[in-house]
Write a structure and sequence with these properties.
The protein has 92 residues and is mainly β. It has one domain. It has no helices and eight strands.
Length: 92
């Protein structure tokens, strides 16, 4: 498998998060307090959260899909961003 990047429709989860989410297209909204993001996702409370995903590990097959370690940045809206380790599940 070639170098992997996150794309719309991929699923991801943070380490020790009790759920996974699906990457959605960024809204394109940016202002002085919000730097923008690569993607959005809808959390379990129906909030649309800005997120950046950086793949940090090699893809491996888990029997159902390819997955890679990743760094998740939940983009701060007028406040500092929050970072998590996690897993990105690649759609082929």
């Amino acid at each position: 498998m070639d170098k992997v990047t996150a794309k719309v429709g991929d699923n991801f989860e943070g380490d020790e998060w009790p759920w996974f989410s699906t990457l959605e297209a960024d809204s394109g909204f940016r202002d002085s307090s919000y730097p923008g993001c690569q993607f959005r996702y809808t959390d379990r409370y129906k909030n649309h959260i800005g997120v950046n995903i950086k793949v940090t590990g090699k893809p491996r097959w888990n029997g159902h899909s390819y997955m890679s370690r990743c760094k998740i940045e939940v983009v701060g809206d007028g406040e500092p961003s929050t970072f998590f380790g996690g897993i990105l599940y690649h759609k082929i």
